[in-house]
Amino acid sequence: MAKRNFFIATTTAIALTLSIPIAFAEPGTSSDQSQVKTLDAKSIADQYLKQNADKYQLPSDLSGLKYVTTIDTPAGSYVRYQQEIQGAPVFTKQVTVTIDRTGTPLLAVSDYVPYSSIEQMKKKISHSEAEAKALSYIGGNDTSKWTPASRQFGYVIENGKAIPSYHVVVRTKTPKDEWDTYIHAGSGKLLKKKNRVQHVTGTGTVFNPNPVESKGTTSGLSDNQDKDSAALTSQLKSVILQGLDGSGYLRGQYVTISSKAKTYSATNTFNYTRANDSFEDVMAYYHIDSLQRYIQSLGFNNINNRAIKVNVNGTTADNSYYSPATKSLTFGTGGVDDAEDAGIIAHEYGHSIQDNQVPDWGQSAEGGAMGEGFGDFLGATYEDAMTGNDSYGKACIGEWDAVSYSSTNPPCLRRLDTNKVYPRDWAGEVHDDGEIWSQGEYEMAKAFGRDVATKLILQSHWSLTPNATFADGAKAIKQADVMLYNGAHAAQIDAIWAARGIPTN
To answer: Per the UniProt entry, what are the Gene Ontology biological process annotations, in alphabetical order (predicted)?
Structure first.
């Protein structure tokens, strides 16, 4: 499960003004005699960063930081900056400032990297030469299968030196793999590369949430190469499909299904059993639509509020992924079809959520683990909500998906109660390490309820940057609690994350 679209286009700030009273009118004077100074969120953030420039190793005049955007929410505002050198981005390096409703800066998360010099080039390679180099470095010389998706000139900072570079995104023409490459703009050598595509190992079934959890046992449940069975058919649930556009296809407010099945109904009646490929289309639509509606029910109408394209049964591999370049989801058919398990669908949608809130999420190892952990949290709590928090399958994700590779009872893709502690149990594998983060978030849901925990986590994402760490994430959650609930859960948040070895202060 990889990451997001790399560069953030500069946008005009969302109209937001925080009014900070400087002097109040004396009683009896007219309102136009009162003197009230208003500062927008950017001005507040600028002032805060200038006052704390030494702490964050920033230039005192903030030169080298370019304002990107302000996100306004009922709880507060989030101001984002991009580090630049000579008008070009320092790739993945950003700064955010979190501001509460009173105009008080609460938190800054900074990726800013100081540098002492800029490497000089005798000759700069061209864009096309950089693309050719990128293709060769990921083994994609066959241009019938691979294509450069985007490229941009900027800088990579290494050992205090700013290196002129190209960032080239290369992906397969049939979506499967997608790579970030950073090419030295002078020599053409590879500086680093990273697979961007979000993968989950396993496949799944969408019932409500899956037949293993709804039945409470694996007895009698077998994939059997996608064939129907009485045991599986008995677990089908009738649901209402909301937000359809009336075309007869599974297209709606928050989901656009793309599949070989080309599922269509003139009466908008989509009743299929799992042996029919249209079954996965319906379940992908329903569960993603339900998740977006749930997010909006919590008060967030600006998180991934779009019709996401979903390529159902889009690969024969035993994995699924989110593509930051195309902003779409793809589900595989290896083993149990992935789009048959609500936990797997929710997990992948979680990557899309984070990409929407923080483009280029997860550049650090800990950030990548937070991405996997959040996906597992979203899937596990969604499954729990569908089954009324029954003990069978609790703290487990992808039970139906896992029947082909797990020998546990219930079968699990991953668990959220492994009691891993950072850094003792750090393994250097993003999914394994995600279990550290997912347990902390899942413990919050157990302590505060799903709704409160999800609100805190979603609110906290806006405070983070592409290179954020576990500690940044935990601190952002605690600050979100201050903004949303006046810090009512602070002590429990401290204890939950301390148990995972992650500080909140």
So the answer is: proteolysis
